Amino acid sequence: MPLEPAGATPSAYAYPMLVKQLLHSARATAGGQEIVYRDRQRHSYRQFFERLNRLANALAGLGVGPGSTVAVMDWDSHRYLEAFFAVPMMGAVLQTVNVRLSPEQILYTLNHARADVLLVNAEFVPMLAIIKDQLETVKRFILISDDGATLGSFGIPYAGEYEALLAAASPDYDFPDFDENTRATTFYTTGTTGLPKGVYFSHRQLVLHTLAVATALGSAAGQGRVHRDDVYMPITPMFHVHAWGMPYLATMLGMKQVYPGRYSPDMLLKLIASEGVSFSHCVPTILHMLLADKAGADVDLSGCKMIIGGAAFPKGLAAAALARGMDVFSGYGMSETCPILTIAHVRSALPDVDAEAAERIRTGYPIPLVDLRTVDGDMLDVSRDGKATGEIVVRTPWLTQGYLHNPAASQDLWAGGYLHTGDIGAIDPRGMLTVTDRLKDVIKTGGEWVSSLELESIVSQHPAVTEVAVVGVKDDKWGERPLAMVVVKAGQAATADDIKAHVQRFADEGHISKFAVPDRVLFVDSLARTSVGKLNKKAMREQLAG
Amino acid sequence: MPLEPAGATPSAYAYPMLVKQLLHSARATAGGQEIVYRDRQRHSYRQFFERLNRLANALAGLGVGPGSTVAVMDWDSHRYLEAFFAVPMMGAVLQTVNVRLSPEQILYTLNHARADVLLVNAEFVPMLAIIKDQLETVKRFILISDDGATLGSFGIPYAGEYEALLAAASPDYDFPDFDENTRATTFYTTGTTGLPKGVYFSHRQLVLHTLAVATALGSAAGQGRVHRDDVYMPITPMFHVHAWGMPYLATMLGMKQVYPGRYSPDMLLKLIASEGVSFSHCVPTILHMLLADKAGADVDLSGCKMIIGGAAFPKGLAAAALARGMDVFSGYGMSETCPILTIAHVRSALPDVDAEAAERIRTGYPIPLVDLRTVDGDMLDVSRDGKATGEIVVRTPWLTQGYLHNPAASQDLWAGGYLHTGDIGAIDPRGMLTVTDRLKDVIKTGGEWVSSLELESIVSQHPAVTEVAVVGVKDDKWGERPLAMVVVKAGQAATADDIKAHVQRFADEGHISKFAVPDRVLFVDSLARTSVGKLNKKAMREQLAG
Fold it and tell me: Predicted ipTM?
């Protein structure tokens, strides 16, 4: 017998899940709510809605329509938020350009994505000038400048300045309906190997990610609960996985939003204090920077909810944030996953701050609709006992359906019908996932697998250590051996033996294998990082091998 | 230029939004959580998941497969929850039968929906016996009985008893993927005129309703906030719009759930106390019954969140609930809308209990994805000034796409591409909707429209009044005139002049038109209600005219 179709009346509205539909409730209830840009501008949602119409008309005037690609190079701003909505709502694709890439990489991504129009902050114009003659598809440029001024045109034929174009455009625009599977956004992952790879998300995927993340964050019993009276500010760049999708969520819920421009600790802390920011997200490096800022040591961070992701969250850092009264907790995902898969909401009473920190650095519980497994090489589930590790593979409604124009990498990503995260993890009987390592960062020594992340977490708890990276180096006898690179806190000192003795205690107490104690400890001034601030272990390994 | 399609890798999983996908997060994290049935049974989610598999196998053994329709006649139970999931997850359609209809109406709905299998509580077997020979499509019957006993077969050829069939069935079942637009549920609206009309919802619609309602309830800043540590119990029947969809929501979030069987005040209050129920929903009549229950006067209801809907929420009743410490607030929707459209979360500090009650009885703010308008006869928006009234029309992703096998009524429902609620309302500048009346219950007197609901709310505030209904009666001079039917509280007394004087004060203070003061007040022992407990104004008008 065939499935029973839902059946529709001809005049019934077949509601497509489009980005524009996220605006209905905010439009009805939050017209007076504020959107703030640094200490420079603030306006209401009512004005925001009108600015979306003006931006769409301005872009349409430059030939943008369904199927066009509009690229943006800007720091986090109200303008970027406008592009998040207006560009996809026109049926065009928004390309969020990673401004921390090299000019050559940026050129590659703009050509590869076939961008038609580029919105560029004046700050990046000198860089753009280097590559402009090699742009294959970008024909029109819009200048973004906080004060309307430019540092010089550098030969870029601007169609106009952002605010001037909006002012000249009509405030009325009728965003059309179309297929919810239309591509809405694209951006490039910044792996440590090979060319950047493009991922892409449809309207349907963005809407479902927004709803599922809102459900997860809102349904917390207490800790880590996000609500519509929160004040939101991104501290993960908007070019990086749509700032984890949170601008869509904040707008849907009609929250007050604060956009900080280029990140600097003083501006971020100033905005947290002056605007009452209560909800944000960042990578561990940035949290470390905020907590270490001397001028901002007096800023009240208590109650500020902050999701930490993008890299392993060291326990020492979590403890330092908890000591400032912050509500920090991990989120897990990646560019390919839109990104949120799990959230580490604390679900039961914990005995002390140490236990709290230990729980909050774990990777988290799967949010609604996430089908998350840890599997062996045959795609069979490993035990959910909190000990057995396997590759984390997932299905959700918001995963990139491939890499742009890259069928081979797409096939690998989706081998066996599940998206392969390339991460190794363990799931405990409560459903809590802990990522133990990147598949490629596991250290294989004497037939055992040692987690570089676990070792980093242990070393970070030494009182003199401020940052640490552990990598495997080739060893004739053992295959690989762990090596720790350590940055010591200003005014503190430690020897390699101090660090080894510290790690040895964890081995003696049975927390880690005795094979995990590093043979070598190198003291360095800083750690190699990728363009988005993650530890660049490939570069470290190459440096050590060379 | 064509729209850019999302583009999929052949092996990528095109995640369909199916009811089964709501189970992922609970399956991962809530295996030990409890599901309770009255004082008779309790089991874990882990057992629940296994029971879904067993039910599917038992039904498959009776020939149920994709496209089949499985009807259920039961009070609210763990079994009903199992049918909510297992039946649609097989690709079959769940028909939730309104057991309060007459045998003739039930016969009509079973034949009209072409039900194949019927699960029937022993309590309804005598009624079933009356109609069994006229059933056109139902061929198999499963007996539901709390103690496995039957009151006699009444000639029904049972395939077996529910628990026995589950015990005999395999605990393994692989629920398939299929098109998310497949019909998942159907049930019949109980209008006061004509034959029952069938509405129907797809998997996609149920999933989106669940996510959007969870987002709305979770994002409240404080008042009315639902979270995963709540204990849920329905007090709106599961046959009525899936108990407002809350069993899906509670299961997705892994909440403890309590099912009360047939509603009686003593059992409901006992379960609230013994199981710690903190989240429910009901119609005003039931809330009134709970608050009026003498034996339950000592039950601590403080902090219990309760959404009130299905009928106008009298202010006096809200005040009485607030005085018991309950967190009562309105929700708005109807059978055709799955049902939730708005939630009356209080968004700002209110000066006193009176103002609180006034806010909480209002209809509420649209939840995410809801495009809700108040329009005139030409489908043009009326002003959102809180005063202008128009018909409430909506678009959301979870509206019935028509009435089953009824194209004419479907066309009326969806005239102009919006679903017509048949309700009259006003939207204020904050986005708060207030339903002022049913389109057909507005009293037209002397060229003015008087809201019967507003009058009922005023009369209900008279200290001697426990229930009231206001209807329009024909009048040669004015067209219609309002008439109030009043039930007086036990041990209290009031005259028609008392009531009229009470209403006159509201007219003198400018709250209502002087034309709204009723000419006649009738004192009655009880008010005519429909099968789902709503005031039956059609019956009242006929009675008064006859």
Answer: 0.88
